[in-house]
Amino acid sequence: MEPAAKPNRIIYIDILRILSIVAVIALHTTADLLIRSTDFNSASWWFSNILNSIARFAVPVFFMISGAMMLKVHVTSYRTFYKKRILPLFLALLSWSIIYDLYNQFYIIKYELTWWEYVTGFGYRLIMNQNYVHLWFLYVIIAIYMTVPLISKLVKVCSEKDLRYFIIGWFSISIVYQFVTETVLRVTGQSIYIISMNIPLFTGFLGYFVLGYYLFHYELPQRVKHVLFNIGVASFFITPIATYFVSQHKGSLDEMFYGNFSIPTFFMAVAVYLYYQEKETSMNENLNHKIQTVIGSLSKASFSIYLIHLLVELAISRKIEVDASLLRVSASLLFNVVAIFLISYVTVKVLHLNKYVTKLLFGGRG
After folding, report:
1. Cα gap 67→144, rounded to integer Å
2. What three-state secondary structure class fits 4?
3. Which of 318, 265, 246, 257 is nearest to 33 (CA)?
4. Interior CA angle at 344 toward 104 and 19, to 5°?
5. CB-based contact 95:360 (threshold 8 Å)
6. Which end of the chain is flanked by fewer CB atoms within 10 Å, N or C?
7. DSSP per position, 125-142
8. Which pLDDT tens digit goes with each residue over 24-64?
9. How many other C-beta atoms are found inside a 10 Å radius of the C-beta of residue 211?
10. Max CA pair span of the chain
């Protein structure tokens, strides 16, 4: 079966981008309280845990969207591809690494460093991905984009059966095997390593990348969609409950079920993707042009919002007490998520008015 042709503007992809960036903001907004609190029965911890859990689909969906959009490109020149796709990402990485590093070193930590000490320290942190928490995404996406000229050709000559084979192999190694090893480690205290399971092609975020391409181009049987969707919905309930028990056992937050390669996270991401993909036709028919324009604008800004949102969070967010009431915690966290998203969006739209700033800070995107 040949892949179906898709239009250039896809509203469900835009909505997935928006939902994912809002979810990323929720992840970072709730993280502080979850890490600080060890009262796992408090209302504040539970609300943060639930909000963090249901937002875990975000990063896998970002990679799935990237795979759906990028692997369909036809790369004719490596030089052009690197200049258009990879160099802008590297400039964004360098620019935001400097911004966050300066803020962290001289405002948060308040180190007194000589110019040479700072430059050498920054260079080390840049190479080792130790500048700021969310910039890891750029390192990974740059690495994956470097494979696109080859992978895009590979997936085009692969049959649907070939792609399913790859996805099942990746799922078995990166998702199931990793879950088993983490479970064994927590139960027995012993780390297991099976050398035959170390298959590089079946590990890492490349699997989500190819999965996005597969779901974008091939129609799954309805019964398979229903199974995946139902498991995904169940995972939204399983994740916070399972996190409660493993954290209680550990005595501090245990992120086993939060991970990007945890079984519940995988199924949550697939369920969210499939749900909005199914709604594509109805959304195109029911959403008027103005709403679709707003959705498109928010979607285009999602990458820029990702880069700037933690700076906004540092500027406006305040710590929430771990013993705060449910009403106060929920209102504060939800307000922070909405405020950070809106302020970030307005800020990047203003910054995008200058094309040089757009190129330097945001890789020309948005």
Report:
1. 9
2. coil
3. 318
4. 115
5. yes
6. N
7. HHHTT-S-GGGHHHHHHH
8. 999 999 999 999 989 999 999 999 999 999 999 999 999 99
9. 24
10. 63
Between CA 22 and CA 101 the distance in angstroms is: 24
Structure tokens that stand for 366 in this block:
């948005």
Reference 235, options 197, 264, 206, 200; nearest CA is 264
- What's the average model confidence in pLDDT over 189-210? 88
Q: Are 20 and 57 in contact (CB under 8 A)?
A: yes
Please, which residues have CB within 8 angstroms of residue 68's CB and are 6 or more apart in sequence?
13, 212, 213, 215, 216, 217
Asked whether the beta carbons of 276 and 229 are under 8 A apart, the reply is no
The identity of residue 107, as a single letter, is: Y
Report residue 246 as tokens.
């493993």
Q: Which residues contact 29 (CB under 8 A, 6 or more apart)?
A: 313, 317, 333, 336, 337, 340
Are 309 and 340 in contact by the 8 Å Cβ rule? The answer is: yes
Beta carbons of 257 and 264 less than 8 angstroms apart: yes
Cα-flanking dihedrals φ and ψ of residue 42, to 5°? -80, 155
Measured distance CA(21)–CA(306) in Å, rounded = 6
Residue at 146: amino acid letter: M
Read off the tokens for 73: 């490109």
User: What stretches of the chain show up as alpha helix (H) in DSSP?
Assistant: 11-36, 43-54, 58-70, 78-81, 87-103, 115-127, 136-145, 148-157, 160-170, 178-188, 206-217, 222-250, 263-278, 280-286, 289-300, 302-316, 326-351, 355-362
Angle at which helices 87-103 and 115-127 cross, to 10°: 130
pTM reported for the whole predicted model: 0.92
Residues in CB range of 315: below 8 A, 6 or more apart: none
Rounded to an integer, what is the distance from CA 212 to the centroid of its chain?
A: 13
Q: CB-based burial of residue 41 (10 Å sphere; 0-12 exposed, 13-18 middle, 19+ buried)?
A: exposed
Query: What pLDDT score does 1 carry?
Result: 44
Cβ neighbours of residue 250 closer than 8 Å, sequence gap 6 or more: 186
Structure tokens, 164: 């399913």
Write the CB contacts of 292 (distance below 8 Å, at least 6 apart in sequence).
11, 284
